[in-house]
């Protein structure tokens, strides 16, 4: 259903249907098969989906996760946010979307908070197992937990209790920050025993991860429909 489009100097995956829009920020897989399936599914729900390409054509379709992790460690926050902002502009100005939200997984979940804090146009922020450790690695210029306070849109965040990348204490801090906001509802999903990246089909050999996603995804779809329609 979707096609590759060029926005400025970057390519993106687009599944276009109407004036409700979502910007998708992938996990370590990049624009691999799974994120394209999710974009196409959103289009089937009546939501135009545009996917940011974090690794410039590299994805699990043509690279190993180790190679993509190396590219992630070289990523610059400001450059990535500039690309994402340009895609938001494209959704509004070129595609004519009236409302646009942002959804991200893992690294993309982190950027969803950063982008939502910077651009008040976003109609929602959806973050699946966002990679927001308080002990930030060198390539994390910004503290996404602290910056989440600046998000004024409704937020839905999904967290797995066995997340090896983000301690439970950090998720509790994130919840506290989100719930202290004076604008924007907060919806939190908590999945005991599920792993970081539980949305990824490659992790669904564990029932706890497959079950978590089976519960989480329909709720996220309903949340997106209600906030961008």
From TrEMBL:
Please report the stretch or stretches of sequence annotated as the Dienelactone hydrolase domain: 19-226
Q: Which UniProt keywords apply?
A: Hydrolase
Its organism's taxonomic lineage begins at: Bacteria, Bacillati, Actinomycetota, Actinomycetes, Propionibacteriales
PANTHER family listed in its UniProt record: ALPHA_BETA-HYDROLASES SUPERFAMILY PROTEIN, CARBOXYMETHYLENEBUTENOLIDASE-RELATED
Molecular function (GO) terms for this protein are: hydrolase activity
Q: What is this protein called?
A: Dienelactone hydrolase
UniProt keyword Hydrolase, yes or no: yes
User: Could you tell me which InterPro entries the record lists for this protein?
Assistant: AB_hydrolase_fold, Dienelactn_hydro, Dienelactone_hydrolase-like
A Pfam family in this protein? DLH
Origin: domain of life: Bacteria
């Amino acid at each position: 259903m979707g096609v590759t489009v060029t926005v400025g100097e970057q390519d993106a995956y687009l599944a276009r249907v109407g004036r409700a829009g979502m910007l998708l920020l992938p996990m370590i897989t990049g624009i691999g098969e799974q994120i394209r399936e999710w974009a196409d599914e959103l289009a089937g729900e009546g939501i135009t989906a545009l996917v940011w390409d974090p690794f410039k054509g590299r994805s699990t379709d043509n690279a190993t996760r180790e190679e993509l992790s190396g590219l992630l460690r070289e990523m610059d926050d400001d450059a990535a946010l500039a690309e994402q902002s340009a895609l938001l502009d494209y959704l509004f100005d070129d595609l004519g979307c009236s409302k646009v939200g942002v959804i991200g997984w893992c690294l993309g979940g982190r950027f969803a908070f950063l982008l939502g804090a910077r651009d008040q146009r976003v109609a929602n922020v959806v973050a699946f197992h966002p990679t927001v450790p308080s002990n930030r690695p060198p390539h994390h210029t910004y503290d996404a937990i602290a910056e989440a306070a600046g998000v004024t849109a409704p937020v839905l965040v999904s967290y797995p209790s066995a997340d090896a990348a983000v301690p439970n204490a950090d998720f509790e801090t994130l919840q506290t920050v989100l719930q202290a906001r004076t604008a924007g509802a907060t919806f939190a999903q908590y999945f005991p025993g599920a792993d970081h990246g539980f949305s990824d089909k490659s992790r669904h050999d564990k029932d706890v991860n497959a079950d978590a996603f089976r519960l989480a995804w329909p709720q996220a779809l309903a949340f997106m429909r209600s906030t961008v329609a």
